[in-house]
Specification:
Blueprint lengths: L3 E7 L2 H17 L4 E7 L2 H4 L16 H8 L5 E5 L11 E6 L7 E4 L14 E3 L3 H10 L4 E3 L5 H9 L5 E5 H6 L8 E3 L13 E6 L3 H7 L5 H17 L7 E8 L2 E9 L6 E9 L3 H15 L1 H9 L2
Parallel strand pairs: 1-2, 1-3, 6-7, 6-8
Antiparallel strand pairs: 3-10, 4-10, 5-8, 5-9, 11-12, 12-13
Helix pairs in contact: 8-9
Length: 308
């Protein structure tokens, strides 16, 4: 294996933090490595004026990074697994999933101390239909307003008074040293996380076996098993990262439990399925939960988003 490893990453502060974190983990394994970051701008970073679901949210934050792997200009790419497409190019593979950070969503507000404390018609910022639908299911009186950009940009818009509150991933805020900005952690019961939320994944070429062997040392088995169940559910639903699908798996002893939700954007319809299986059957569990959701009518909701 080459001693020079090039990591493709987005330029946002959070993406750079994640890439730098992987770099440091690699150097801890082998201090003789030369690890460089290749900073790239993705389509999702450019199209900031519209909801991601309006222009095909699948892969908007990863396509350019994967192209760099495929053309050989990078050796690995670091992703937030919640941004990953259901299907990967056959030439690429996820070689490692790092230990899961806090998977929950977080409410950030300068004036109100909880989601429940927000006044009627308060303006809440989020770019996620998953978050929107689950919030409106509990608080249909709230106004949801589009919020795009990196974490710093979103916080500035809140501080400038454009929103009464915004919803962000707790993991991102904590990784950037912004934990003090979190007003309330939203429980997974209240707002089930996105598939893969809180997990950093490392992608490389499928035929680069030496690099895979090194990256496997960074792999967290618990995170990888939970992710396998969540992604199998998402695949069976034919979902993407920008449709109102939530999926979150947990492990206790030798068993894995997966809850999945599919909701209408207005929150008026909320389909829920939850099952438990042996940890060796993670993908089968994901498919079973998806089958339950589809039997409840999930396809119509998902198709309505793609064809809106």
């Amino acid at each position: 294996m080459t001693k020079h490893i090039r990591i493709a990453t987005r330029k946002s502060p959070l993406a750079l933090w994640q890439a730098e974190y992987v770099k440091q983990q690699l150097l801890a394994l082998d201090a003789s490595l030369q690890v460089d970051l290749i900073k790239m701008t993705t389509e999702g970073d450019i199209k900031l004026e519209h909801s991601l679901s309006k222009f095909g949210g699948k892969g908007l934050f990863i396509k350019e990074l994967e192209k760099a792997l495929l053309d050989g200009s990078a050796d690995l790419a670091v992703h937030s697994m919640k941004d990953m497409t259901v299907l990967l190019p056959e030439e690429l593979t996820i070689a490692a999933c790092l230990a899961r950070h806090d998977p929950r969503d977080a409410l950030v507000s300068n004036r109100f101390n909880s989601l429940q404390a927000l006044p009627q018609n308060a303006i809440v910022g989020t770019s996620s239909l998953r978050r929107q639908s689950q919030i409106l299911a509990k608080r249909p009186d709230l106004q949801i307003k589009l919020l795009r950009g990196n974490v710093g940009t979103r916080l500035k818009k809140l501080d400038d008074g454009e929103y009464d509150a915004i919803i962000l991933a707790a993991a991102g805020l904590e990784r950037l040293g912004l934990k003090q900005r979190i007003t309330e952690y939203l429980s997974t019961e209240r707002c089930l996380p996105a598939v893969g939320q809180g997990v950093i994944g490392v992608e490389c070429r499928a035929n680069d076996h030496a690099l895979q062997q090194l990256l496997h040392k960074l792999n967290d088995t618990t995170a990888a098993t939970c992710l396998a169940a969540e992604r199998a559910m998402n695949k069976a639903l034919e979902g993407g990262c920008q449709v109102p699908i939530a999926g979150f798996a947990t492990i206790k002893d030798a068993y894995i439990t997966l809850e999945g939700r599919v909701a209408s954007p207005d929150g008026k319809t909320m389909l829920i399925a939850k099952q438990t299986a042996n940890i060796n059957d993670a993908e089968v569990l994901g498919e079973a939960v998806a089958k339950d959701l589809l039997a409840q009518g999930a396809r119509a909701i998902i198709d309505s988003i793609y064809h809106a």
